[in-house]
Amino acid sequence: MVSSKESRVWSGFFSGVFRIAVLLMVTFVGSGIATAATTHYISKSLGSNTNSGTTKTTPWASLPGMASCNSNCASYTPGAGDSFILYGGDTWGASDLGIEWQWGGTSGSPIYVGVDQTWWNSSVCGSSAWCRPIFNAGHAACAQASDDFINVYTNANYTTFDNIEFTGQDGGGSYVYVSSPNIEVKNMYMHGWATGTNNSVGGVYGAGTIDGSSFHDSVIDGSDTNKNFFNGVYMEFPLVYNVYIRYVVSGFLGNFNILHDNVVENPVISCCGDHANSLFNFGPYSGNTIIMYNNVVRHTTGCSGCVNMWYDGNTGVSSSLVSYGFNNVLFDFNPSNIMISGGHPAGPWGTYHWFNNTIECGTDTNLIGAACFGNGETGNTLTVKSTNDHAISSVNGSTGCSINGGACSSVTTDLLQSLSTANGQGYTSSQTYAFSPTSGSNATVGTGTNNQALCTTISAINPAAGSACQSDTTYAVAYNTTNHTVTPARTPNARPSSGVWDIGAYQYGGTTGGPNPPTNLTAVVQ
Prior knowledge:
- This protein has seven helices and 37 strands.
- The model is unreliable at about 1-35 and about 510-525 (pLDDT under 50).
- It has about 525 residues and is mainly β.
- The protein has two domains: about 1-35, no CATH class; about 90-520.
- A hairpin with a 2-residue loop joins strand 27 and strand 28 (about 365).
């Protein structure tokens, strides 16, 4: 359909007869003619929904889908390529929330809901730097959307949500609920929730058909809460990466295909009786493959019986399941449920390739023995192949891998060190990068197996994971507690394409594992 603006432009160029012919052509073409994408500006402090919303000086007060959206805001239908820019530093409250987002873009023209970092409220952010817009319900019930701050409907394909601070959840919902494919959620800061009545909520909640959706480069931090409620990423998501999660009941709880470069620390005991977990992957979101790499799980000692890292823990039995885990670092945790394969029902649970991980089998003062990872449930049949894994335990030996009290299916160049032996060579939990080599003469250096063949196999499944396989750990992300962002924690060293690899998550490169983190970054246990 031709807009009034387009008609005025055309009228200056075409005579009446020719203009009629063109309009007839448009009628025949119908929906094949697309209207131009539009940018709208949204400011709670400056805006009015009677404005046009199309300039920074005439913003709307509400975002489409908000409970408070009316007048021109309510009459506008978002379309492919549109952008909705939220004024940095402004706060939208319970009467504005939740947002019922039900419009989608296309693969080439997604809708963007986010920010312009040159546009902010200086009375909130200061005059020199942008800060995030804020959704804050003030621990009151949201006006709509079942207390979810953003509820993304099933028809809202191809939308990106970017750079929003969420706080003040009253405990009845999640911050972002995704039930549509191809949704990208990124650069978020989620905190400040209240205690609820159950833990069936999370910072990001995925459910239904959400193929192509991702959550990344974000922080979920419960340090300013009662530390007894909420999950990080809940139910299911195809891809999650570069996320820092702490002080939640479960960091990851549900079905995921690929998890990489995430930190989970300090899980808490639930207010409501739920089991706490750091990274509990029930099974693949889709297909039969899980890939988890470059993750860090640490500081779980305050949570007795917590799951630390579990592959295929709660999905249907299937011999076709194949999982890969590499470059993960696990340390300083309650010595149980450390790195587990296979789920609760007895039966076949597929094949697990664990290689080049570094695992402390408990805490410095409470370590278990040789069999600290790999253990499946009694009655399960599964294949666990462990290569180049470095385990720090209470004893020295060749492997820390076992299944159901027996040997893992295959063990190749694993290294099991007692804590005293590891400490004597410089491997400690207090290093900037825990249990990394400090010298070319360390036991992990130049003593492993080349796993390039596994990287090639992984590349065929996911090229990014295959590329990461050819380097050592990134040590996930570091958390800047000043602006609540994440940055890469460590520059990885490449592993040789031929010749021996090092054992463990690190490839010694003549340093202690890369540069120190920038200032204002923290992993402090509170």
